[in-house]
Amino acid sequence: MKPVVLLIGRLPHVIGDVARQLQHLPIEWLGAHDQDEVIRQLDAEPRIGCVIMGAGLDDATRGALVGVIAARRPDVCMHLKDRASGPEGLVPFVERVVRHEVLGQMQPG
């Protein structure tokens, strides 16, 4: 069974683009772009092992989502992308996180 990663971003099509570009990774991708969707995904999928949040959301929204995720799923690690690398930095950021945090736990060395 593939590990599950929840991608959160401001625009739904961006999340889909990231998942398509990283389809070579053995990951089941879920996406959300607002708080209601995040809650639905967290409640519906107990296998989510990692949440990655893009930088397009404003600080208040990102902070609120961190609180929601931490309260509902304290077992899930969260990674927030920096803003300095811009939109083009999202795919490399997600790939680094997944390779090191998710797949690195499954594959020794």
Rg (CA only): 13 Å
> What is the overall pLDDT average?
92
User: Per the principal axes of the C-alpha atoms, what is the gross shape?
Assistant: globular
* Low-pLDDT windows of residues: none
Largest sheet, spatial ordering of strands: 2-1-3-4
- Give the beta-strand count: 4
Number of helices: 4
Order of helices and strands: EHEHEHEH
| Terminal-residue CA separation | 20 Å
| Share of β-strand residues | 15-25%
Derived from helix and strand composition plus strand pairing, the structural class reads alpha/beta
**Major sheet summary line:** 4 strands, parallel
| Helix proportion | 40-55%
Question: What would your notes on this structure say?
Answer:
There is one protein chain. A four-stranded parallel sheet has the order 2-1-3-4, with helices on both faces. The protein is built from four helices and four strands; from the N terminus they run βαβαβαβα. The longest helix has 17 residues, at 90-106. It has 109 residues and is an alpha/beta fold. Helix 2 (35-44) packs parallel to helix 3. It has helices spanning 12-21, 35-44, 59-72, 90-106, and strands at residues 4-8, 28-32, 48-53, 77-80. The radius of gyration is 13 Å and the shape is globular.
